[in-house]
Specification:
Length: 727
């Protein structure tokens, strides 16, 4: 652990004397995965709910991820305690109800701590929809919450924590549920596959409405006396007269409609797969007919919110929020007689194919000539790609601190060198201008295109014995000492080569159809038996071992590059990259595959916060990075930081009216650094420290402003504070 100490005496201090106590932990501890890109997260948003009374919005997503917000802009992850896919959410009074995969139902009374509900009988059916309201139960208007899902499953609860199954004679999978009340006649209506609509006034009897469509129905809502339904292939229905009469609605949509939200003065927003349709009270408008700021972008939208009221808790007013796959969100507000749309976080969403730390910092490459760089794995900068490569898919990157090489489709080869460039800054000392010249490295920032010498795709990159090697389609391997002039080297294969790695004794190349090549001199390559026809996607030299990962969970190891051993991983997904950090090997792959091992023999399947495919990994300063489709970049600080969180400034404010005092702290550390704020009234070996709940620095700047309230009557004569790293 690490500590930092400061002193407070009950008044605002003119200055602070800070004492750093160093006692660092050496053992590995897992602080958890965080999103670096997209922001605020990249999980698929299944549904959103908003409580005007609480001023709180909730998003539920895949992998058990929950996000909450009070302003529809800043979304904070909260732990659910599960990894099930979460499918639906609603407010039951002030209680949050979430349903999902394998019969999961969660509830929370504060939005932060979630418990599993008691589901009787237990089920593996997914609950795809949930809604709350009041029904007449035994002639009494009773608050109830209902969940529906696979195989016609219907469960209900009167408190949100204890659920029972409701009998019905239909087995269609149900996707949506709502409770409406027209003229004092409450009714629960569920919709689902093949156009099924079920209604119940009391949870006991469920009646099927005569079908007016065979399309799958996804969501249902009740407002202004009518039920509204959306479904596949642009299907939209209105249930009038309390659900006794159903008619189709023409919105102009032809793709799947997944969600709907209702605004002010009879306005409606329907959204789905590349569909956003808006009803202004008279006609339907195609909201994908133009571009920002008047129209939202095309996307697979799966969730929506309309926030129409101002209250004391939340000042959000009259806005629509759309959410969809990969955490994408778009916010629309009605001003000056027109809607204006904005993307709160305009994140990079190109696929990322490789990550390198060969230069001492992170470089990632991907689609459309994407090049990203980062010093800390948290904040990533988009670097300028040479114009000739902007339409290329960059598949590989590597090198050393002198030069990096990026390669990709259409024979693209880029390079960047450690040239020193002048940086001139001006400042004034009095009335005199002072010009200062500093020199900075252009490595990873300024990239050049090598003259075109081939049109095949390249993917593997490595440095060995003064040369940079690249490999690609048709068994091609080239080498260069300067990134500009490349020489072809004959190989014994025409199979695609997708990975290169080197050690003192030579180079290993791997690729399709189980291909392994080896050279001791960089010129003469030999085919090495691999014992498999699976695609061997990537090879790394890690901690005196070569490790190959590939299709069907394939993983091979070798100490010399010639003799290979097949290891059992227990997975059948593609493994696409492997890295090593302080005694542990980590492998990533498609569909969120994540494995780790301390000996390369026994592999454990780990959990990760996305099901997106990952194609690259990197490690630096105790941190693991994984990147892949749709711009996904995840980070995990696997080892604690060696430097403590600094207390930059401390102060106090007093409120004699309500008898409170506020301790004001400004902390400085590293992003993702977790720590506690401890306090004691005296220093010494017999000091008794009180410990706060863990705090975490989330801002990329490393600063955290923290306020802690106390009562004046409880203030000691003196008090000491310290920060202590926790993990």
């Amino acid at each position: 652990m690490s500590n930092m100490l400061c002193f407070g005496n009950g008044i605002t201090l003119p200055g602070l004397t800070l004492l750093i106590l160093l006692a660092f932990a050496n053992k590995e501890l897992n602080a958890g995965w965080r999103w670096s890109n997209p922001l605020p997260h990249g999980n698929n948003i299944s549904e959103m709910a908003y409580s005007a009374d609480l001023g709180l919005a909730v998003q539920v997503t895949d992998k058990g991820r929950i996000y909450i917000s009070s302003d529809l802009y800043t979304w904070m992850p909260v732990e659910s305690g599960v990894t099930n896919a979460l499918r639906a959410v609603t407010f039951f009074g002030s209680r949050i109800i979430i349903t999902g995969e394998n019969g999961l139902i969660l509830f929370s009374d504060d939005g932060y701590k979630y418990q599993k509900a008691n589901v009787n009988p237990p089920t593996t059916d997914w609950f795809e929809g949930v809604a709350s309201g009041k029904l007449n139960i035994n002639s009494t208007s009773t608050p109830v919450v209902i969940a529906v899902g696979d195989n016609g499953s219907i469960y209900s609860s009167f408190d949100g924590s204890n659920w029972v199954k409701r009998a019905n004679s239909y087995t269609n999978w149900l996707r949506g549920i709502c409770i409406g009340n027209r003229s004092g006649n409450p009714l629960a209506v569920a919709v689902g596959e093949a156009g099924i609509i079920l209604t119940s006034p009391n949870l006991t009897t469920w009646n099927k409405v005569t079908s007016i469509t065979s399309q799958h129905l996804n969501r249902i809502t009740f407002t202004s006396g009518n039920f509204y339904v959306v479904g596949e292939n642009g299907t939209a229905l209105i249930g009038m007269s309390g659900g006794s009469t159903w008619i189709p609605e023409t919105t102009g949509a032809t793709n799947s409609l997944n969600t709907m939200a209702f605004g002010q003065i009879g306005t409606r927003l329907y959204a789905g797969n590349n569909e956003v349709r808006y009803y202004n009270g008279a006609t339907w408008v195609n909201f994908l007919a133009g571009s920002l700021p008047l129209y939202p972008p095309a996307w697979n939208y799966t969730a929506s919110l309309a926030v129409n009221a101002v209250n004391a808790v939340n000042a959000v007013n009259g806005v629509f929020l759309l959410g969809g796959s990969s955490g994408f969100m778009c916010l629309g507000s009605y001003t000056n007689n027109a809607f204006h749309w904005s993307i709160p976080y305009d994140s990079i969403r190109q696929w990322i194919w490789d990550v390198s730390t060969d230069a001492g910092f992170y470089i990632a490459v991907g689609n459309n000539g994407l090049i990203l760089s980062s010093q800390n794995g948290v904040s990533w900068d988009v670097e300028l790609t040479p114009l000739a490569a902007t339409n290329s898919v960059l598949l590989g990157v590597g090198g050393d601190t002198n030069m990096l090489v990026a390669v990709g489709s259409q024979g693209t080869v880029l390079y960047t060198t450690n040239e020193m460039l002048p940086e001139i800054s001006t400042n004034y000392v009095g009335t005199n201008m002072v010009i200062t010249t500093n020199y900075i490295s252009a490595l990873g920032v300024i990239w050049y295109s090598a003259p075109k010498f081939n049109t095949n795709a390249f993917q593997g990159v490595c440095k060995w014995n003064g040369f940079y090697y690249i490999a690609g389609d048709n068994g091609l391997i080239f080498r260069s000492s300067n990134g500009t002039n490349w020489t072809w080297i004959t190989t014994p294969t025409t199979n695609t080569l997708s990975g290169l790695a080197s050690f003192v004794g030579g180079i290993v190349a791997v690729g399709s159809k189980g291909t392994i090549l080896f050279t001791q001199d960089g010129s003469n390559w030999s085919s090495i038996p691999s014992g498999t026809t699976n695609w061997l996607y990537k090879v790394r030299y890690l901690n005196t071992n070569f490790v190959i990962v590939g299709n069907n969970g394939t993983l091979l190891t070798s100490v010399d590059g010639v003799n290979w051993t097949r290891q059992t991983t227990g997975v059948l997904k593609w493994l696409t990259d492997v890295v090593y950090l302080k005694g542990t090997y980590y492998a990533v792959g498609t569909q969120g595959a994540f494995l780790f091992s301390t000996n390369l023999v026994n592999w454990t399947v780990g959990e990760i916060i996305t099901g997106k495919s990952l194609y690259a990994a990197g490690v630096s300063d105790g941190q693991l990075i994984a990147a892949g489709v749709e711009g996904v970049i995840l980070r995990n600080q696997l080892y604690p930081f060696s430097t403590p969180v600094e207390i930059v400034k401390y102060g106090q404010t007093k409120n004699y009216t309500d008898g409170t005092i506020q301790h004001l702290f400004l902390f400085y550390g590293k992003p993702d650094q977790r720590f506690s704020l401890d306090a004691t009234q005296k220093l010494g070996i017999d000091s008794s420290w009180t410990t706060s709940e863990p705090l975490e620095i989330t801002d990329p700047s490393g600063f955290l402003y923290y306020i802690e309230s106390d009562y004046l009557t409880n203030q000691p004569n003196s008090e000491f504070f310290r920060t202590r790293t926790v993990w």
